[in-house]
Design a protein that fits this description.
It is built from one helix and four strands. It is α+β, with helices and mostly antiparallel strands and about 90 residues long. Strand 1 and strand 2 form a beta hairpin.
Length: about 90
């Protein structure tokens, strides 16, 4: 799961369009600009030269597929423990 995206653009004088998903914005870039897009961005340069860096931070949960079976086994184990305790107390 991606938690954070950061797009840093820098130029002395450039005309660019940055888009992600249905959003797009035109910039006349002189200096630095930092954006936090919601999806993978596309940068179109119309005039000039642009330097950029794109950082993506994410979290991976490799065992998340086991959550539902583990929950079912925990409930079944609890029920079997109560049944065993009840039979032990009856004699």
């Amino acid at each position: 799961m991606i938690t954070n995206r950061s797009l840093r653009l820098s130029s002395k004088n450039a005309s660019i369009m940055v888009s992600w998903g249905p959003n797009y914005t035109l910039y006349n870039l002189t200096g630095n600009l930092t954006l936090h897009p919601g999806e993978r961005p596309t940068v179109n340069v119309f005039k000039g030269e642009v330097n950029y860096s794109y950082e993506v931070k994410g979290v991976e949960y490799p065992y998340s597929d086991l959550a539902i079976p583990a929950f079912v086994f925990a409930i079944v184990g609890t029920i079997l423990a109560w049944i065993g305790l009840e039979r032990t107390l009856r004699g």
